[in-house]
Amino acid sequence: MKGKLIYTPLRTTVIFVYFLLAMGFYAQASDPTHIVFTSPREGNAEIYIMDINGKNLRNLTNHPAHDSQPAFSPDGRWMAFVSNQSGTNRIYLMNRNNNVIRPLTNHLRSTGDFDPNWSPDGQWIAFTFRKGEGPASQYNIYKINVNSGDLQQLTDTKYNRDPAWSPDGDRIMFFSDGKERHDLYVMKANGKGLRRVIVRNPGGYSPAWSPDGKQIAYERLGLEGRGIYIMTAEGQHDQRVTPKNTWGENPAWSPDGHWIAYELELVSPWGNPNRDSNIYLVSPDGAETRQLTQHPARDRYPAWVPENFLSVSPTAEKQTTLWGRLKQSGSD
Q1: pLDDT at position 29 over 80
Q2: 164 beta partners
Q3: Interval 163-201: pLDDT, tens
Q4: How big is the CA angle at 272 (ends 266 and 275), to the nearest 5 degrees?
Q5: In terms of Cα–Cα distance, which of 22, 57, 23, 54 is closest to 41?
Q6: Which class would CATH give 35-331?
Q7: Cα–Cα distances in Å, from 231 out to 42, 85, 100, 133, 242?
Q8: 3-class state of residue 25 by DSSP
Q9: Distance (Å, whole) CA 173 – CA 264
Q10: What is the pTM of this model?
Q11: What are the sequence ranges of the domains in the chain?
Q12: Beta strand segments in 146-189, E
């Protein structure tokens, strides 16, 4: 019997408890831990990163241009964002491994590109393509292949924005003032099969799918201010999850489904020259809430950060510094 391990009932119980603790630690370690957002708090719009307690704030872009609307590839390797460093709003990609950026839509004949949103397989970015200026301008949803540059137009009406890819990659939801009343619509990823999601007035804006594809977070304007609402993917059973008489926008569902990040203004923006929005978290049932930023500038466009994005070398501080220098040299 020497050297042979005997599993007594007590030993087996201890091992099982350690296993459960290890699994719990693993699940906790894999939860989303960071959020990025846009803020002009240093004079011009930059993209910042912080943890989900609102701590350890860092500037990721650090450039004189206006940088906003961050969106991450599913594998965390790339951050797409909108920047006017070329003089017009275009979509750029930042590589997390070497911090090099490359333009994605600079070659297009648009007058501005906005609202990047990654397909679940990481091959495509759906975005808003603006054509023309002023009242005559048109906004339509396009998608572009990040590797080949293949470009496909998906809508052809006057005003369409905020595309959001479904978790299964089959559908894209977006806001439109199209053939019916302005509202949320959904279509297949090839632009076919268009249908209205919500049939109510007023309609919704800025959709965000839950990770399981069963629910939609969106914003809606009404008599009680602009709020964040939750509904099923079929447009039913909607409920407001943010406080009444406040102004919430741009919801972003966490990868684990536990939180919705959004921007919130406590005072009506109508006629307010000093708009002040901050980043908040709210649980999908509205029971829990957490304020992450508190600054007089407008903190906007929250997005969740894949953990892979944070697993970089060199260190995060060197990464931020190098990223700012690369952007500076790329625009000289």
Answers
A1: no
A2: 173
A3: 999 999 999 999 998 656 688 999 999 999 999 997 666
A4: 55
A5: 57
A6: mainly beta
A7: 37, 38, 39, 35, 14
A8: helix
A9: 23
A10: 0.84
A11: 35-331
A12: 151-153, 160-165, 171-176, 183-188
pLDDT averaged over the chain? 85
**Best CA proximity match to 93, nearest among 129, 43, 147, 39:** 147
Q: What is the pLDDT of residue 243?
A: 95
Burial 108-138 (b: 16+ CB within 10 A, else e): bebebbbbbbbbbebbbbbbbbbeeeeeeeb
Least Cα distance to 253 among 53, 93, 79, 117 occurs for 117
Neighbours of 196 (CB within 10 A): 16
Q: How far is CA 113 from the centre of its chain?
A: 16
Q: Tell me the three state secondary structure of residue 324.
A: helix
Quick one: which of 287, 279, 332 has its CA closest to 50? 279
What's the burial of 30, exposed, middle or buried (CB within 10 Å: 0-12/13-18/19+)? exposed
User: In sequence order, what E strands does 180-306 have?
Assistant: 183-188, 195-196, 204-209, 215-222, 225-232, 239-240, 247-253, 260-265, 278-282, 289-291, 300-304
